[in-house]
Amino acid sequence: MAVQTRVVSIFFIQLVLLAVSGPNRANGAGLRTGYYDESCPDAETIALKTIRKAISKDVTLAAALLRLHFHDCFVRGCEASVLLDAAEEGDAEKDASPNFSLRGYDVIDDVKSAIEKSCPGVVSCADILALAARDAVRLVMF
After folding, report:
1. Is residue 12 one of the residues assigned to a domain?
2. pLDDT average per 10 residues of sequence, the chain (142 residues)
3. What is the 3-state secondary structure (H, E, C) of the chain?
4. Residue 14, domain member (yes or no)
5. Residue 90's pLDDT is what?
6. Which residues are listed for Ca(2+) binding in this entry (predicted)?
7. Among residues 19, 46, 51, 119, which one has the fewest Cβ atoms lying within 10 Å of its Cβ?
């Protein structure tokens, strides 16, 4: 039994090391504060105001939005696939069993709608999800 536990422990340590030492996808060209300053100057302000309104009604949405962002990014990177509804030919990522209890979709929809009114077609859903998670956590921290 001790040998089996040790083998499992070594396996997980190797798995973590592999994940940490894998290719670095962060090349510095990703989302950062001020990324949309020229193409959609009000995007971050709109996102923050919308998130602040939602968090004021339910503070637990901060954790929900962070979890939603994590579930989106964990498998194939941050591409907002967790937000997509199922197509006729298959299941959606949001319908997978680990994602059944995710919530906050309505908040992301509200942020997307508000930003689209200001600058349609500019800010990606993946970036909106990242902004929402960032702002939600920031709002409950201070």
Report:
1. no
2. 60 55 51 90 97 96 95 85 78 74 93 97 95 95 78
3. CHHHHHHHHHHHHHHHHHHHHCCCCCCCCCCCCCCCCCCCCCHHHHHHHHHHHHHHHCCCHHHHHHHHHHHHHHHHCCCCHHHCCCCCCCCCHHHCHHHCCCCCHHHHHHHHHHHHHHCCCCCCHHHHHHHHHHHHHHHHHC
4. no
5. 67
6. 72, 75, 77, 81, 93
7. 19
38: helix, coil or strand?
coil
Rounded Cα–Cα distance for residues 130 and 84 (Å) = 16
Query: In terms of residue numbers, what domain contains 86?
Result: 36-141
Cα gap 102→64, rounded to integer Å: 7
Q: What is the pLDDT of residue 100?
A: 74
| One-letter amino acid for residue 90 of the chain | G
Detail the residues annotated as belonging to a binding site: 72, 75, 77, 81, 93
- How many domains are contained in the chain? 1
Tell me the three state secondary structure of residue 34. coil
Residue 18 lies in a domain: no
